[in-house]
Specification:
By secondary structure, the chain is α/β, with parallel strands linked by helices. The chain contains 8 helices and 8 strands, in the order αααβαβαββαβαβαββ. The protein is 36% helix and 23% strand. Strands 1, 2, 3, 4, 5, 6, 7 and 8 form an 8-stranded mixed β-sheet that branches. The longest helix is centred in the middle third of the chain and has 15 residues. It starts with 8 loop residues before the first helix and ends with a strand.
Length: 213
């Protein structure tokens, strides 16, 4: 666990047994359009049998399972041992690594399972734990070190077209919690300024999919 960690793995261990139930119960936010969001990732990825796919922050493997059904070779990571145990039970043929994505920004070497390149890297509902500049740095590192030439990094997350859109959306809720949500206008500008080719699809009022090449 990182010092003064606002998102400790233990919080997600405690959530592991009820995570999929939460998706159904919180269908207005944060999980509005959840299934469509995941399907959009798959559509953007264009998976083929045998394609190598790295799923960062796999959770209970809801996204990874879609790629497994299409015959992809999966490597899945998470920093929560209990989330990873749930994923492992659903995907017995996948490779797994207990790994905190944040350590890549600290210059620590990745575990052996990640020390390679993949045809696709995907992630669902993880990157909103990073400030924008850390998002950009992480994307650059993943593309440079872990993606094959011509591959794609596809990120599904809590995202709004603009800050104003988020401010309007949150008025529906009495218990709103601020995190590092994406705002597509500023995020695409920051990714472009970093030399990254990125596109964006808004899927629901509060979530969308970024594709980087």
């Amino acid at each position: 666990m990182l010092p003064d960690d606002p998102f400790p793995p233990s919080d997600f261990d405690a959530w592991a047994d009820t995570y999929d139930q939460s998706i159904r119960e919180y269908s207005r936010f944060p999980f509005a359009g959840y299934e469509q969001v995941l399907q959009t990732v798959v559509s953007q990825a264009g998976p083929q049998p045998g394609m190598t796919v790295l799923d960062l922050g796999t959770g209970t493997a809801n996204l990874a399972l879609l790629f497994d059904r299409l015959g992809c070779q999966l490597t899945c990571t998470d920093f929560s041992p209990l989330m990873l145990a749930k994923a492992r039970a659903r995907l017995p043929n996948a490779h797994f690594a207990l790994h905190d994505l944040r350590t890549l920004l600290g210059g620590l070497p990745p575990p052996e399972a990640l020390d390679r390149r993949f045809e696709r890297i995907v992630s669902g509902y993880v990157f909103h734990h990073f400030e924008l500049q850390r998002k950009v740095l992480l994307c650059r590192q993943l593309l440079a070190r872990h993606l094959v030439p011509g591959g794609k990094l596809i990120i599904a997350d809590l995202s709004f077209p603009t800050f104003a859109a988020k401010e309007s959306f949150k008025q529906q809720f009495d218990d709103w919690e601020e995190e590092y949500y994406w705002f597509a206008d500023e995020s695409l500008s920051a990714l472009k300024a970093a030399g990254l080719d990125a596109t964006y699809i808004q899927v629901s009022a509060c979530a969308g999919v970024y594709t980087l090449r």
